[in-house]
Amino acid sequence: MKKILAIQGSPRGERSHSRRLLDHFLQALAAEQRDSDISRREVGRIVLPPVTEGWVAAAFHDPRERSEAMRAELALSDELVDELLATDRLVIAAPMYNFGVPSGVKAWIDQIVRIGRTFDFTPEDPASQYKPRVLGKRGLIITTRGDRGYGPDGANARLNHADTHLRDVLGLIGITDVEVVAVENDEFGGMAFEASYAMAQRRLAELAMDF
């Protein structure tokens, strides 16, 4: 049985295109793979706490010597990391905001990128490489963009710090098999948006059969 974790990153509700595409994909996935276990984590419409000085101090402290206060600082992070480690497939649905990801998605990233939990690194040895600990998983990013040309080789590709950032972060912790399904022309609407949306729907329907 595959365990699928869906991160819902849009701060909008029923008006969110990325949220609606995620719903369609998960419904198709449940129909195609009836034994899958799908769970959702809302990060767009709730406020995840930002990383604090206490959080950083606790995360870099020897786990065997953490105080109760330190463990409390990391309690939510531990919950989110455990949830990620337990899943086989990760889906992140989020729009591009100001060329990057929404604040809720960034807060989630900061909570799950943890030295000693999702990657290893020896600060005392600058020559050492980051060693990912989240291995054997597959990822999918469902994103929407107001303008056009943010895909690879597009006119605005250099301004895309949204799904490109997500791919880099996921790669750091070990999730390198990641596909991006994007909808563009959201702000323009019309036929260009409808064609992009329909293309994304078709690709997600294909992915639902073997994701």
Major sheet characteristics: 5 strands, parallel
Give the helix/strand class: alpha/beta
What is the helix content? 25-40%
Radius of gyration: 18 Å
- Strand percentage lies at 15-25%
Shape: globular
Average per-residue pLDDT, rounded, comes to 95
Q: How many β-strands, per DSSP?
A: 7
Low-confidence stretches: none
The sequence of SSEs as H and E is: EHEHHHEHEEEHEH
Q: Helix count, per DSSP?
A: 7
Q: How far is the N terminus from the C terminus?
A: 12 Å
What does this entry look like structurally?
The protein has 211 residues and is of the alpha/beta class. The protein is 38% helix and 18% strand. The chain contains 7 helices and 7 strands. The strands form 2 sheets. Strands 2-1-3-6-7 form a 5-stranded parallel β-sheet, with helices on both faces. Strand 1, helix 1 and strand 2 form a beta-alpha-beta unit. Helix 1 packs parallel to helix 7. The longest helix is centred in the C-terminal third of the chain and has 19 residues. The chain is globular and about 60 Å long. It starts with a strand and ends with a helix. The mean pLDDT is 95.
What is the gist of this entry?
With 211 residues, this protein is an alpha/beta fold. The chain contains seven helices and seven strands.
Blueprint of the fold:
Elements: E1 3-8, H1 17-32, E2 37-42, H2 53-59, H3 68-73, H4 75-85, E3 89-95, H5 103-112, E4 119-120, E5 131-132, E6 138-144, H6 163-173, E7 177-183, H7 190-208
Parallel strand pairs: 1-2, 1-3, 3-6, 6-7
Antiparallel strand pairs: 4-5
Helix pairs in contact: 1-7
